[in-house]
Write a structure and sequence with these properties.
about 20% helix; 3-stranded antiparallel sheet; alpha+beta; 5-stranded antiparallel sheet
């Protein structure tokens, strides 16, 4: 448990240093790490939690604000609903809903190309950067004494990077 806590803290610091690669949408943006997908939905300033309806299921997700459907569909990969959550927050003078989805498949190979099947696909450059960042995150976890947050990644980084024999 202490090691898991250490890894979570280390990854949070890694994200702060390495930055977040996000895919923009008409309602906000989404981004991911090896363990989770975070969705940020822009909402009116007067939005309260009672104005929001969010359904988080293992294979699907929906978000409605003031009766207006923001998105609904099947997720690209399965998640763990009991470990997923959402909040209403103020950020830089705006109001947002932040949805945190816990991935079922927590490996660097699980880089999502889109949020929902056939919807909100990351463009080619953004997806490429997401894969690079997840490889950096993988190396950071495998070698916690080093800082990979600013490492240049080239070569074999698709699908989680090179495979090493254990």
């Amino acid at each position: 448990n202490e090691y898991k806590s250490y890894l979570r803290n280390m990854c949070a610091c890694f994200d702060d240093k390495a930055g977040i690669i996000s895919s923009k949408t008409d309602w906000g943006y989404w981004c991911q790490t090896i363990e989770d997908v975070t969705i940020t939905v822009n909402v009116p300033l007067n939005t309260k939690s009672k104005n929001i309806s969010i359904s988080i299921l293992p294979a699907s997700l929906s978000c409605t604000v003031f009766g207006n459907l923001k998105f609904k569909g099947k997720l690209v990969e399965r998640i763990i609903p009991d470990e997923s959550t959402w909040t209403v927050e103020d950020e830089d003078g705006a109001r947002i809903v932040r949805i945190m989805l816990c991935k079922s498949n927590k490996t660097p190979e699980s880089c999502w190309k889109s949020l929902l099947i056939d919807s909100y696909q990351a463009d080619v450059v953004t997806y490429d950067e997401m894969q690079k960042k997840m490889l950096q995150e993988r190396f950071q976890r495998e070698h916690p004494g080093f800082d990979f947050s600013q490492a240049e990644v080239s070569g074999n980084y698709q699908d989680g990077g090179p495979k090493f024999d254990s």
